[in-house]
Design goal:
This protein is α+β, with helices and mostly antiparallel strands and about 475 residues long. It contains 15 helices and 14 strands. It starts with a strand and ends with a helix. The model has no long low-confidence stretch (mean pLDDT about 90). The structure holds zinc ion. Zinc ion binds next to loops.
Amino acid sequence: MSDYETVIGLEVHAQLLTRSKMFCGCATTFGAAPNSQTCPVCQGMPGVLPVINRRAIELAIRTARTLHCRINAECRFARKHYFYPDMPKNYQISQYEEPLAEDGWLEVEVDGALTRVGIQRLHLEEDVGKLTHEGGVFETASASLVDFNRSGVPLMEIVSRPDLTAPAEAAEYLRVLRALLRYLGVCDGNMEEGSLRCDANISLRRRGAAELGTKVEIKNMNSFRHVRAALEYEVSRQARALERGERLVQETRLWNPDRGETLSMRSKEFAHDYRYFPDPDLVPMRPAPAWVAEIEAALPELPRARRRRFVEQYTLPPYDADLLTQDRALADYYEEAVRRHPNPKALANWVISELLHELHGDPAAVATCRIAPQHLARLVALVDDGTISGKIAKDVFERMARSGEDPDTIVRRHGLTQLTDEAALVGLVDEVLAANPAAAADYRRGKKQSVAFLVGQIMKATQGKASPQVVNRLLTERLGSA
Ligand SMILES: [Zn+2]
């Protein structure tokens, strides 16, 4: 066991799914032409006034209550001052001493052990613009381009307490939080597009010590894998430094995924460096308790409750339930299919193996999938009533994925109905037996598994359309009676 304990806290920034920005009416659509979604407010022109987006407050309250946070009776926006070319006002509107919500928790399970991670605060702020450097951020760029479309997009910051004790636990916290935000419909959770971003604070201390060690902040981690790798790197870097008796400095480091290491970016700034003060353009906010109660009453069923219900209601193994409820759209898809054809286990198998494979493992892609849930239900119904074989069903599934057609149309057009007509199959059985005398002889000598080879020959001859049950029975009858 190492002499050191790892202490990790995460700050997650989530872009809220509002149609307009935090303090102006500009659109928030991702990927629009640079600087096409801007106005004097989000470009920081003099004399303009911000107006709070009510929907953003609602989404933040929804999240805060799910995370068991207290909604403060009064909160306030503050100006956080610093210069950066992506921020024309030279201050960011954020919340400081009076955040929207505080003191919640989120449960995380790693290797069967449940940890309750404290949520220190949840507040709202505005995003800054986006810089594109001509050259890598670790090199000297010859030019930088700025796009203010992102400037003013509502951001929710969720700050955990330093309750995480391992990189794997931190990655799991992030996974659970992301799933939750997606379930709540408050953030799309897309880390690649930057709508979910994470900074980590990490320090090491001697086992049992009461005081926290020197804290290092890591930025620039845009996937779960990077978060975990960066934290693992930092644990060993800090442990080595402490072993050698070096002093660690409080600093901000950047994760470089190409080199697999963190690099010092700047010495860590302190809160007082920002000269926070209440924004005089925005009055304090007092969310009405009745409104908060209304938002709370409309919360959807959350992943853990849904997983439990799937196990009970559909008698699914917990593993299946876990996979099916990881994403709200996928779980909705599954339930819609089961409603159409109540064979929960077979449908779970199809969704988990074939459908997720088709979606390249991304459950959220179900939203744009060409196979409608009622069509998948119908496909399983066709297998269950013996119209098509399981093997043919996989073929039909692939055609459905390509064309978006319903399975009945595909089966009819390609004549894929299962051959169950004994009179038609018995002749074929005889042909195959005559063509493969060695296999037949093996079977009669007691090598029963050679029947599988013979079944295979018949399936091949019928392009997989013969009913394996009927073929099996006919074969054993024929072989036994000879
Ligand atoms: Zn604007």
